[in-house]
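Let us begin with a simple case.
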Amino acid sequence: MATKNGLYPPIYRIDADAARAFFGEEVALEDLPQRIIDSYNESKGISTYEREGEATFDGCQLIVYRNVRTRAIVSPWVHFYEPSGISITRVSAQSNHFVGFMLLGEDLYAHTGGHALVAFERFIDISFPIDIARRIADPEVKRARSSQISGTTLASDVNFRDPRRITYTESLENVWTALSGQVRSAVLGDSGLRAVFGPKSKMRLEVSGSIKFGPRVDTLEKLIALVRWLVKTAEAPVPEDDEWAILDAIKVLSPRKSKDLIARLNRHLSEKLTVYHDYANIAVTHVDASLYANATSYTVSKAKQDLYVGDQRPELADILDGVVPGAENPETFLTSIVVRSQCLEYGPEIGTHGTLLEHLHGETRHDGRTYFLLAGRWYEVDTSYIELVTKDFVGLIEQLDIQAFSIGLDKWQKVKSEGVYNKDSVSGDLVINGDTVLTDNVELFDTLSCVGDRTYIIHVKRDFDVKVRDVRSQIINSANIIENDLRIDDPSRLKRHYESLMRRGRTTLTLAEFLALFERPRTYVLAYGAKTKVERTTVDQFGSIVARMEVVTLGGQFRKIASTSHATELRIAWIEIID
């Protein structure tokens, strides 16, 4: 059979501004490819990618690199069957990894073969593919990949039985990073696209950091023509029936398009934190929320100076009060502070690590718009999204409301910390303090309280702000562990949690008595302490959109858990903080 010509190239746009910010503003566009490759080779400590050639073709400057370190590998089949006496002819295969840079006008593009993306991944313009897809793709998608705004999962893949639309509810906590769908029928007739692929009745496209089409691109001329067509299409008006708009309800700010805005937000954040010491709606946490929240020790340092050392999670006040940023620019200052945590119950090497900027999660208002800061990256929030979240949130808290005193929760004296409150401020037929006790890196409850015939699994958080994202994660993780143990009739993790409680002197119950508590109807409770109750008439006093979003997300996630057990429910309790 004759070898088919052509490529199936994913097409990327390089964020030249981000690259120049890294290598130097004076670097010419045509020199960026070599700088990018040299930087990658230096990070590997060996010359991995080498230049294969450079040319000008069809008005486009081309530079091609290849990974020269790949070697032919003998198929594992050859040795796998040797013990049986079956002899398989030696078969070798070699993967090749290429990257081709294309300079068109004032922009730099790239396409790859194999796994060459790693050589320039940090400089991708992530907005380019979605800008195109919103203009040419059908509303329905077949597969999707998302990065979570909240919780401990960094990314997940979703496959649909039939093509369908991404809903508003699914976009509550996700930034969509990859989608698979079809090109609109009307676009298939575009002369520019037909010149590349010929007449097609259907065409698949994959959208992630790149955009990739189903058919192969036969020739270099057609590849260059395709890139030019994509550039033109990205600037066209968005269709009136743009069903992918919800994917941009929370969208990451592109370093390419939003460089000045990101700089202003960083300056605004640094001034807010270091000059005015205004820490409202900004929390210190980590993407591995449970591990960080329940660590046994925390260290915050700047250079050789320790800013905080302790066994309690540091607040921003613990880190920044008394610290003077000096002449450093905002981003440098925020990244010069390092936060470490250790969870000794799992071993001396288990914990989290990162810069302060990477640990900041929250939100801010700037020039009349809302922005989320999540693990050091800025996201712009659409106004209509905020309105929808608030509407759903108000309806949900009214539906899930439970009186704190009815489940044994006393009022919260302002001087008491969360730990002290959990220890001293709960009453009931039976109470267990489970604060900071972990199983599989999860705190199953701050307090377990039995009132009447029901067991209340209570998770407590002071204030109603961005820290609600931590307690939301704890509740879901806790419910998954407990309900799964009960569903499969193998309470192995509940038994281990009991052993941890016993070692800490938190219960005098026998194991059988402890397990019997979970055979009763169970209510999982998000209990927040605040001077004012969050309700329809007061919601605007609580500025955190993240907190509202977390509660709506919690409701949706818990419905899935409760669907397997009629004895399980979710409630929200307000604990009044008093002087």
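The second case is a distinct protein. As before, the sequence precedes its structure tokens.
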Amino acid sequence: MTGRGAQRSRTRTTGTLLVAGTTSDAGKSVLVAGICRWLHRRGVDVAPFKAQNMSNNSVVTGDGGEIGRAQALQAAACGLAPSVLFNPVLLKPGTDRSSQVVVRGVVDGTVSAASYRERKAALLEVVVDTLAELRAAHDVVICEGAGSPAEINLRATDIANMGLARAADLPVVVVGDIDRGGVLAHLFGTLAVLEPADQALVAGWIVNKFRGDPALLAPGLDQLRALTGRPTLGVLPWSPELWIDAEDSLGHVADGVVGRPAPPHGRDWLRVAVVRLPRVSNGTDVDALSSEPGVAVRWVTEPSRLADADLVVLPGSKTTVADLVWLRSTGLADAVTAHARAGKPVLGVCGGYQMLGRRIHDPHGVEATPGTVDGLGLLDVEVTFDVAKHLGTPTGTALGEPVAFYEIHHGRELRGAGAPLVTLAGGTPEGVDAGHVLGTHAHGLLENDALRRRLLGRAAAAAGRDFTPAPDTSYAAVRAAQLDLLGDLVEKNLDTDALERLITDGAPAGLPAIQTTIGQARATS
């Protein structure tokens, strides 16, 4: 294996690999990030790719589009800026049955599950062409599947798993989360339900989140190889230090707590409550808060959790009006209002900012039925939803500090009283700073270290806490350390020689097919 920080091996590494999973949230996103980081540290020109992502966590790219946040994180692992090429199809769920479709960074309508199937053939051409473009520009492309390839009811129109692997002739490794239980059956079953041509591309297994005695797992892995003819390429251990950005599942949250903060500077912890809206969007905005020593960040879904919070955050939402209705029905709206009227800080980001205003106008039915609803009335602002989505990566100042961020929203604000929270380069005001209640459309604002420290200092002063923000916390450095941890886990626990052979040579010829009633039926259907 190649050591950390070593130069590229004499033999140039080129090729492509698809990482599939036994389930959603099996660890595909972080494994791809880890493989990308391992290769990047060896000097390999590597890029990430996810043909189709379904996520309300997204970022704006330098080329003016929108992609899933996981692919932006994977790009950072490669030392690359985000690009629409890394995620050509993004589905942003608005309800349980409909999603906004973003194709190569641009909104391209709204679909139901049924109508989306009709678009898959054309979208397969888009993703295959985009992957070919990436492969021409980079030595290695590490692809991430979506959900599970064992969803055989969706195989005929699949563009992200075996459909992509077959179209582009990609070797596939399958990762399973042992922490869920039944991982050996999940791995075997994933292969068994596939038709032989798909099985021929599945070349190995990776077990994720293992904790325990490896000797107890080894016989099971030996039997899995005997049954399938495919090796386990490694077992990744459970790592409590790993809390890096996840998808909409908020998989990095343990018992509602975000991150693993160090002890505070001073006697007191600062407590942050983030309302977990049903259609939360870009909830990873608050990850930067949890990187600060002494800041305890917790997702909450009921009013009592706000009682002892020093700062309440209303995050973004894909369906602002519907989530505002939910906020009222749960009693959280009253709790947020009481918190603000007691002089305690409240921060609203994007959809959360819109909820804090006086009214939300949706004349074109962007979210649902056209109309106007009352907000919480905590900020003197009204928002009107435009049909066109506003995307941008502006810079400016906030709370006297230079900031960079990104915007993804339909809402156009009409500000009344209150100073702007952000002043864009050129002097345009954005958001509202009403002292203890603040709102902005800016995503990623809290990743600006100096601004984050000012906000936390203000919250600590309002709460009378003996808390001082750490003067040297760098969120970029924290994120880089998390990516290096992923790279270390890959390097130390996977058979990287075998992994590199798969990338360069593809799936070995002659991998045996698993003959099952289901597999035979799939092959002849």
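The radius of gyration is 24 Å. The chain has two domains: 15-51+120-243+480-524, 266-469.
Keep these points in mind for the review questions at the end of the chapter.
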